[in-house]
Amino acid sequence: QVQLQESGPGLVKPSQTLSLTCTVSGDSISSGGKYWSWIRQRPGQGLEWIGYVYYTGSSFYNPSLESRVTISLGTSNNQFSLKLTSVTAADTAVYYCARGTGTVFGVVGWFDPWGQGTLVTVSS
Amino acid sequence: QSALTQPASLSGSPGQSIAISCTGTGSDVAGYQLVSWYQQHPGKAPKLVIYEVTERPSGVSDRFSGSKSGNTASLTISGLQAEDEGDYYCCSYAGSNTWVFGGGTKLTVL
Questions:
Q1: How far is B12 from chain A (nearest CA, A)?
Q2: Are strands B9-12 and B105-109 parallel, antiparallel or unpaired?
Q3: What strands lie across the sheet with A3-7, from one edge to the other?
Q4: Which of A29, A105, B75, B104 has the fewest CB atoms within 10 Å, i.e. is most exposed?
Q5: How far, in Å, CA of B22 to CA of B45, rounded?
Q6: Contact with chain A for residue B54, Cβ under 8 A
Q7: Residue A106: predicted pLDDT
Q8: In Å, what is the CA distance from A80 to each residue of A25, A122, B106?
Q9: Chain A, 53-112: which have a CB under 8 Å from a chain B CB?
Q10: CB A84 within 8 A of CB A40
Q11: What was the pLDDT predicted at A82?
């Protein structure tokens, strides 16, 4: 059974960098065909795709966040990470990590499973 | 890249069927067979219920079905049950390795 678990600070000051880690069990982030993703949900709002990293290290991002976001593979322990710079109150959200599954079209078809999510509040 | 359009809320009685629409553009929903649907209960993570427009993951009730026509995808839930109450989100590939979600639909079982 594949499980993902987010971890990181729950409070970040404005203008600083948000850093989260996702630990994966039951699957290897080094295997092909899977796209390790971050998705967020602002309070009371819908879901927003942030980006993903492939096992090769290649990453793709939401154009609206691209200038501030980096998603990378961890150096150990089957983890991948999210860094979002210059945060503001608008970045307050529950952040989910999820596994994207590749399709015959060569891109992610769906996201499953998801971690339980972690709330990050941006406030001084 | 704009969010896909979903009705904000829908309701139905137990046993009824309801359909949740998800409208996009030729650059996302209409352009690819890569629409997925997620169910979210309060305080929980989203759960995949439909992928690739019509496919149902193992373990998901066959009361859930998906379809697409042009720019609009739909999730149909037949034989509504109390446990189906929650938020539902559609998601589509939008080209150039990007994905877009819908704004979500709050389903109430009366």
A1: 22
A2: parallel
A3: A3-7, A18-25, A79-84, A69-73
A4: A105
A5: 20
A6: no
A7: 79
A8: 12, 22, 32
A9: 60, 62-64, 96, 103, 105, 107-112
A10: no
A11: 98
Token pair of A88 as six digits: 């503001």
Residue located via tokens 């891109």: A107
For chain A, report the end-to-end CA distance as a whole number of angstroms. 39
| Range A30-38 average pLDDT | 90
pLDDT tens for B27-58 read 999 999 999 999 999 999 999 999 999 999 99
Give the nearest partner residue to B1 out of A63, A111, A115, using CB atoms.
Answer: A63
Q: Distance, in angstroms, between B38 CA and closest chain A CA?
A: 9
pLDDT digits (tens, 9 = 90+) for B86-106: 999 999 999 988 999 999 999
Q: What is the dihedral of CA A95, A98, A103, A108, to 10 degrees?
A: 20
Of the partner residues B1, B34, B102, the one whose CB lies closest to the CB of residue A105: B34
Residue A75: is its pLDDT beyond 90? no
Q: Is the pLDDT of residue B1 over 70?
A: no
Cβ-Cβ contacts under 8 Å, B60 against chain A: none
- Token readout for A40 is 């967020």
Residue A105 has pLDDT above 90, yes or no: no
